[in-house]
Design brief:
The chain is α/β, with parallel strands linked by helices. 42% of the residues lie in helices and 11% in strands. It has two domains: 2-103, no CATH class; 143-373, 3-Layer(aba) Sandwich (Carbamate kinase), CATH 3.40.1160. The chain is built from 13 helices and ten strands. It is globular and about 70 Å long.
């Protein structure tokens, strides 16, 4: 309330409707310096009462080497000085009362609003367990989140990308689909450069996000025939409405940690990248499916491009996959870790987007590729 009144005083100064008595009557400041104010205009500078108040106030400001008195050579200068001094006076009053009342606040009880979490630290284990198992609202229980790999799909160009986008567009006529884009080779280039320069992980994440944004713009344009529309992270809560309008939304996959990206367990590469972003979007929306579209048939025991003995894993739990401590994986390990505590996304499907029809089969519920289950 105090701040509000100060701002109100500032407005009164600006509109020239201010009377000096209002200051004391409105706030009852009782500042010791009030007795020193020259309100009768003896300083000789100004006749306007609010200007005299500010001019007098300049006598006891904490910067003796600076002349803050009002000089009425020009009406425009006077108005500007009045507004400036009003802001300065507001800061003075805020500081005066902040330090004056600090001791009193230490003696009082905390101001509380009655609620079930009143007085809690929000980290007490007993409290957290009390809310375990409670169901959360699924905003879009029929949504299919389809993440298109930048490295595995987009970077292959029109021969691979365009047939997949046509399939997505046709499927969107009968299914709710959110398209999420990866980064690809350009992300690897910027990470390579950034790592060489010793940039912090948060900066690397910020830079990588710009690449997946570029891919989202391209994909949305290519899907314009099907009402493809590029959306941003803040638009996720608008998806129910957008779907009802027939929009096919496209969003970049990098989660909005940006400069606040979590430190990596090993090295400096951001651990939360576009697979993770697709998972988090699916989780908050309560999606039915999360499908990662790659350039391989699913999850393998090793990299199938470099190890001829690699075998596909058709079905596995998150715990089992983490226990394998694989040298390399087709998806980000962070996704598997998050699945352990997910409330809505209990399966992640990995399919080969180079094979026409695979996405349709996966959305229809057919078991193809790899399914990673939470339990």
């Amino acid at each position: 309330m105090f701040l509000f009144l100060l701002l109100l005083i500032g407005d009164l100064f600006e509109v020239n409707d201010f009377c000096p008595d209002i200051l004391c009557d409105l706030l009852d400041l009782k500042l010791p310096e009030m007795g020193q104010l020259d309100l009768d205009g003896s300083s000789g500078y100004c006749n306007n009462p609010e200007h005299r108040l500010l001019d007098s106030f300049a006598d006891f400001h904490p910067f003796p080497d600076i002349d803050l008195h009002l000089h009425c050579d020009s009406p425009a200068v006077l108005v500007n000085q009045s507004i400036c001094y009003t802001n300065w006076f507001t800061v003075y009053c805020i500081n005066h009362y902040r330090y004056k009342s600090m001791g009193d606040c230490m003696k009082r009880d905390r101001f509380e609003v009655a609620n079930k979490l009143q007085g809690e630290s929000l980290v007490r284990k007993g409290l957290l367990k009390a809310y375990e198992g409670r169901s959360q609202l699924r905003m879009m229980p029929d949504l299919n989140v389809v993440k298109i790999g930048g490295h595995g799909i987009i970077d292959y160009g029109k021969e691979v990308l365009l047939p997949l986008l046509t399939e997505i567009g046709e499927l969107s006529r009968e299914n709710q689909i959110l398209v999420v884009t990866g980064g690809g080779v350009r992300v690897r280039h910027i990470l390579d450069l950034g790592l060489d320069l010793g940039l912090p992980t948060g900066v690397l994440a910020e830079l990588a996000g710009k690449i997946s944004e570029q891919n989202a713009i391209m994909v949305s344009i290519l899907l314009s025939k099907y009402h493809g529309t590029r959306i941003h992270t803040g638009d996720l809560l608008e998806l129910p409405m957008l779907m009802n309008l027939g929009v096919l939304p496209v969003i970049h996959g990098t989660p909005p940690y940006g400069l606040y990206e979590q430190p990596a367990h090993i090295g400096s590469i951001p651990p939360n990248r576009t697979d993770t972003g697709a998972f988090l979007a699916a989780e908050v929306l309560g999606a039915k499916n999360l499908i990662l579209v790659k350039n391989v048939d699913g999850l393998f025991t090793a990299n199938p491009f470099t190890d001829t003995t690699a075998e596909i894993i058709p079905d596995i739990t998150a715990a089992e996959l983490l226990a394998m401590e694989m040298e390399d994986m087709v998806l980000e390990p962070r996704v598997v870790e998050l699945m352990m505590n997910a409330k809505h996304v209990h399966e992640v499907k990995i399919i080969n987007g180079h094979e026409p029809g695979n996405l349709r089969r996966a959305i229809a519920g057919e078991r193809i590729g790899t399914v990673i289950r939470a339990v």
